[in-house]
Fold this protein.
Amino acid sequence: MPSLDELFTEMDKQCAVIAEDMLKKAPPPKENPLVPKEQIVKEAKTVLTEYLQGKDLRERIARGYQVIFRELKAHSTPVVIERIQGELEGCFNEVKKNTKNLIKETPKEEDAWRSFQEIYGISDETINDFYSCGFRLYEQKSYQEAADVFYVVSMLDYRRYNVWMSFGSAEKQLENWEQALIAFSMASLADMELPLPFIYSTECY
């Protein structure tokens, strides 16, 4: 199974291609007698690529996956682990394919709201397995590790009410009020009829 570093490396290629394409479509930079145009474009590409890569988020993503894999190894059967490894292998291959086709294909409008889970073919069963790792840690009062796991799951599928509520609750226990409020806000968007996100949000002020 590919490592997380390999997955990040492949996604870096995508971000570089996206940044270059965005700059091609952007208006040309204004003339500056002190700074050559080529240098402005080069620096803009670097800044945009690093923004798209989200390098400041990677430490938490890597931490979350490490916790998930540790928990799966400790609490899951070999059959479950083999199934998840197969799905992540497929995910890696899909990322590589997307790198090659990124500029050739125009994304369809109906694909705009698809989650990473859908794009990369990760099953609901695997998402639930990941979530269970976080929920178990939350019950054990390992709030930081639980929050890191819920963060990963929320990135894979942003439409799950229970994930955002659990993520917010873990962050609230850690007194990370701003992150907790963001998570509860996302939970309210996932299911606007339930009042709990608003009630929990009042405890973060």
About this structure: The chain has a mean pLDDT of 80. The two ends are 44 Å apart (CA to CA).
